[in-house]
Design a protein that fits this description.
By secondary structure, the chain is an alpha+beta fold. Helix content is about 30%, strand content about 20%. It contains six helices and five strands, in the order αββαααβαββα. β1 and β2 form a beta hairpin.
Length: about 170
């Protein structure tokens, strides 16, 4: 008897799940990988910038201490988002992202429940400009959500960024 072979989306989301285990955020554990031509070219997880102290080292979340709700005031967070880190890590290695796909997996830190791991608006803008083709996100419903960058660009041309229906934290 053979085990059914998992899809590429499940395979790459599983790898992003492992990357997420390195996260240092008290609120969310999120990992992102970028794949081009069926090869992983970059990874990233939620964590403080290099050579700085993260929330785990500090022993608290600054945004929690300040009473900032989820999805707001990202500039006051110690961490760099997983999506941003995967783009930054590719740049550090001199690797082009053009035509690649990003896979994002996320869970809540309390209880480890799956979340809709949709990128925030800042990350979406970076993904759009990086030249990626698709974004595959884990969801609370356990079925991945697959977005094309062209869909995002078209939706934002026709409506606006705030009319986006797949927002982080919703």
């Amino acid at each position: 008897m053979t085990t059914p072979r998992i899809s590429k989306e499940e395979y790459y989301l599983g790898i992003a799940r492992e990357v997420a285990r390195r996260s240092t955020c008290f609120r969310r554990s999120i990992g992102a990988i970028i794949v081009r031509d069926d090869q992983i070219i970059s990874t990233g997880y939620v964590g403080a910038p290099r050579k700085t102290r993260d929330s785990v080292e500090h022993g608290f979340c600054l945004r929690d201490r300040l009473g900032i709700p989820h999805g707001q005031r990202y500039e006051l967070c110690r961490s760099v988002h997983a999506e941003q880190n995967s783009i930054i890590n590719a740049a550090r290695a001199g690797v082009s992202l053009l035509g690649g796909d990003m896979y994002i997996f996320g869970t809540a830190m309390e209880g480890g429940a799956a979340i809709n791991a949709f990128p925030c608006f800042i990350c979406k803008k970076m993904i759009l400009n990086a030249g990626l083709t698709r974004v595959v996100c884990s969801t609370a419903a356990d079925a991945p959500a697959i977005f094309t960058i062209e869909e995002w660009a078209r939706a934002w041309r026709e409506g606006d960024i705030l009319d986006d229906t797949h927002q982080y934290g919703s």
